[in-house]
Amino acid sequence: MILPLFSKRKVLHFNKTDARLANNGISIDLQKVRCRVNFQALKFTPEIESLGYKLVRILQERGPFVALHLRYEMDMLAFSGCTHGCTKEEAKELKRLRYAYPWWREKEIVSKERRSQGLCPLTPEETALILLALGFDKDTQIYIAAGEIYGSERRLAVLSAAYPRIVRKEMLLDPGELQQFQNHSSQMAALDFMVSIASDTFIPTYDGNMAKVVEGHRRYRGFKKTILLDRKRLVELLDLHQNGTLSWNEFAVAVGSAHEKRMGQPTRRRVIADKPKEEDYFYANPQECLCEGANCDDLLGPGNSSSIR
């Protein structure tokens, strides 16, 4: 049924297949085609590309910058059930939003349990501590690649105090330039995507689809620095530091040690034969496309391998 359609239309759009494609067990030639499509052929509309390049140019003229994918938006918190740091009223508001969408099956969520499992995005306050522990000084230019932060400026106060050079696209562009994209969240995200690809360092506070594709794009471009936060370990350390068990120096050393091998270095993609949905995402680590030959052992040697089960 597909071939006649393809012969007629030449191009087909397979809806909702982005996260349903196999990661492993596919021929190298086909995997390389996937890389060419995703990392080389990907183009946005001229309007998006023009404004995206302008954003990148403005940021680069100001010096090196970090793209912080701060996934602390209302929809993310509502559907994940993550309310750490929120007021009781905010937690109730987020729960109401989750219940308002019948297609979202998971309704009753224990935020504390989810956070302890590393399944919540870091809060802006937690993010400030982690950035400081990782050695980013207060003069670091940080671009927030995200939509509207839940709690707005109030929730960004601690992060902004620690890093006064925080900027967002709304601060760098005239309102008229963003007006055509204002009601289109995916187009606004495309601008953030372009900035994230070009950044000197990319740090996602949650590992959603955009974060994974940016990670893969940066790997494909020569393993540009991408700090992949171990949230499960981090919330343990954050709680120990905030209850006085860990001093600041102990906390900073532990955070740094936990991320020595999580900087976007070459690594083998993790394979879980009986749980394909839990495998490492191909587009986050397209290892077949990162070396010339069929054998990647020179690049992805034992010292750079994550466990393969």
Helix content: 40-55%
CATH architecture descriptor text of the largest domain: 3-Layer(aba) Sandwich
Looking at the chains present, what oligomeric state does this protein adopt?
single chain
Radius of gyration: 20 Å
Please give the largest β-sheet: 4 strands, parallel
Extended strand count: 4
Enumerate how many helices there are, as a single number: 14
> What's the order of the H and E elements?
HHHEHHHHEHEHHHEHHH
Mean pLDDT over all positions: 90
Low-confidence stretches: 305-309
Predict the CATH topology of the largest domain: Rossmann fold
Write down the overall geometry. Answer: globular
What CATH first level of the largest domain would be assigned? Alpha Beta
Indicate the structural class: mainly alpha
SSE topology:
Elements: H1 2-9, H2 28-40, H3 46-61, E1 65-69, H4 74-80, H5 88-99, H6 111-116, H7 124-133, E2 141-144, H8 152-162, E3 166-167, H9 169-172, H10 175-179, H11 185-198, E4 201-204, H12 209-220, H13 231-242, H14 248-258
Helix pairs in contact: 3-11, 4-5, 7-8, 13-14
InterPro entries: GDP-Fuc_O-FucTrfase
GO cellular component, one term: membrane
Protein name: O-fucosyltransferase family protein
Give me some keywords for this one.
2 domains; globular; mainly alpha; 14 helices; four-stranded parallel sheet; single chain; 309 residues; disordered C terminus; Rossmann fold
